[in-house]
Amino acid sequence: MTIDTVNDLATVWQDVSQWPPSERIALATRILQSLEPRIEGEPSPGKRSEALKRLIGIWKSSQPPDDEAVERIVAEERSRKYG
Questions:
Q1: Quick one: which of 46, 54, 48, 49 has its CA closest to 70?
Q2: Which helix (H) or strand (E) covers residue 15, if one does?
Q3: Which of 1, 23, 38, 72 can pair with 19 through a Cys bridge, CB separation 3.0 to 4.6 Å?
């Protein structure tokens, strides 16, 4: 990233950081939705959504997963992604 790009991003961030949270979330959503999978084997949006739903489900639980559960989840995701 060039210095000019970093400066541009800093300027944009100064403006955007003043927006209400709902507007920042809407902008972030639009930016993320604009990205297209560029790497072969990258999960499709549907698979990504499934993984996000699982993570959100974990976050909503009354007790966060312990280290062993996290390691198991990470291993499952790696296995699913890389075979």
A1: 54
A2: helix 3-16
A3: 23
- State the pTM of this model: 0.40
Which two tokens mark 68?
Answer: 């062993």
> Containing H/E element for 18?
none
Distance of CA 17 to the CA centre of its chain: 19
Whether the Cβ atoms of residue 46 and residue 38 lie closer than 8 Å to each other: no
Q: Which two tokens stand for residue 4?
A: 């000019």
Give the tens place of pLDDT for each residue, 19-72: 888 888 888 888 888 876 655 555 555 666 776 666 666 556 667 677 888 788
